[in-house]
Amino acid sequence: MEITLRQIDKYRFLIPKQGNMYTDGIIYTTSEMLELIKNDQSLKQVANVACLPGIVGPSLAMPDIHEGYGFPIGGVAAFDLETGIISPGGVGYDINCGVRLLRSNLVKEDIIPVIEKLVDTLFFNIPTGVGSRRKDFKLNQTELKAVLKNGAKWAIKQGFGWSTDLEHIEAGGCLPQANPEFVSNKALERGKAQLGTLGSGNHFVEVGYVEEIYDEKIADAMGLFKNQVTVIIHTGSRGLGHQVCDDHIKVMLKAAAKYGISLPDKQLCCAPISSPEGQKYLAAMAAAANFAFTNRQMITHWVRESFEQFFKDSAEELGLDLIYDVCHNIAKIETHIYQGENKRLCIHRKGATRAFAPGHPEVPAAYREIGQPVLIPGDMGRYSYVLIGTKKAMEETFGSTCHGAGRVMSRHQAIKMAKGRNIAKEMRQKGIYVRGAGRYTLIEEISEAYKDVTDVIEVVHNAGISKKVARLKPMGVIKG
DNA sequence: ATGTGC
């Protein structure tokens, strides 16, 4: 099937329903950014997703779209709970990879003179890199299952965080469908010593500051102000989530055949949401999602402790409140208005962020009037953005927006291009102190390997599916 | 993304 693409308006492109597609594909992007993905499979993947049974509304993609396992990264797809499917490829290997943002009462001048020591402290306190594990903190099976069942509230109960954190996490930091019984022993084994570890790749903890405010009123409601120090934590469910994905892909390959679902690509393997296979994946995915929420909560605790050690002041006094925590690799059961009626749907967001509008009951009380905070990290050398969900997102994208910058270069290409360069030194000259765990981490994560996140943000802001609130600038980063 | 592989 040759992909035909038609421009709808300045920021939207249509793949009209054709062949085996049940519905259209719609990509939020610009013609310039489309050029960057013309040689990969991502547009074909948007069309492929539209061929899956029970899809409701268009197969959507965000401006940070690039090729992924089966579904594109940057993809959003909604499925009917009775006739639709659920697919591990629509969630991604890193189940509930996500981002959280902490505020503070500090300003950038407080940090600049001490950034190296502060980042070193974080690097020491938070296990980082491939296979990172905690030496002091290995859970037994019973405790781990409690984590998988209860999510972030388990951490709060153990003293890793504040009770006020919970209401500032998507879904309250716990997906209720979680059932650890459907998480394999192998996945459990991998998870036991990984709670509170950062991992590798694009995962990071970043100390930055608010460089620009676009909406004073909304920024103020979130507790953000110009030059304020912020902390972003970006990580997911580590080896546990990866193993859950792996295990259930094997099941889904058989299930798709069993239920007579014809797949344009094996990587789209799936099962009806209502089938035992679908329900088991949903329960295991939710358990892995809860592990990821708890992981970010534990890291938050150690970030607060690091700041306390460093500034000899309590985290409460330092105002290190959690602004919000978003998932960007997840399938959620949500109610949306579709063709004038309330409909319960399974929304797959793979490299896409929920962006619920003001007034939505799932937006925490503190943000009910302004809308759900949307957290979009860029690459380590440029910016990150804070946005807010909109009514238009509810109408057009099942309350979804982009998740990041999106790579333009493979890890391999990046290594080839940056050979012989001292990336840490280059970053230091730009005023950013970086500590990377792996031998190739910094080189794989160079700015040039990513789109400029600003271009991505301009699309979602101008298309109206989220609204810019603030731009953050990194000062210090720890990378896996 | 990953008890990656470059």
From TrEMBL:
Which parts of the sequence bind Mn(2+) 2? 234, 328
What are the protein's UniProt keywords?
GTP-binding, Ligase, Manganese, Metal-binding, Nucleotide-binding, RNA repair
Xref: Pfam families: RtcB
* Keyword Oxidoreductase attached: no
Catalytic activity from the UniProt record = a 3'-end 3'-phospho-ribonucleotide-RNA + a 5'-end dephospho-ribonucleoside-RNA + GTP = a ribonucleotidyl-ribonucleotide-RNA + GMP + diphosphate; a 3'-end 2',3'-cyclophospho-ribonucleotide-RNA + a 5'-end dephospho-ribonucleoside-RNA + GTP + H2O = a ribonucleotidyl-ribonucleotide-RNA + GMP + diphosphate + H(+)
Record EC number: 6.5.1.-
- Cofactor entry: Mn(2+)
Q: Which major enzyme category is it?
A: ligase
The name under which this protein is listed is tRNA-splicing ligase RtcB
Q: Is ATP-binding one of the keywords?
A: no
Q: How does it assemble?
A: Monomer.
One GO BP annotation here?
Answer: RNA repair
Q: Which family does it belong to?
A: Belongs to the RtcB family.
State the organism named in the record.
Answer: Desulfofervidus auxilii
* Binding positions (Mn(2+) 1): 94, 203
One GO molecular-function entry: RNA ligase (ATP) activity
- Which Gene3D superfamilies does the entry mention? tRNA-splicing ligase RtcB
Residue positions of the active site: 403 (gmp-histidine intermediate)
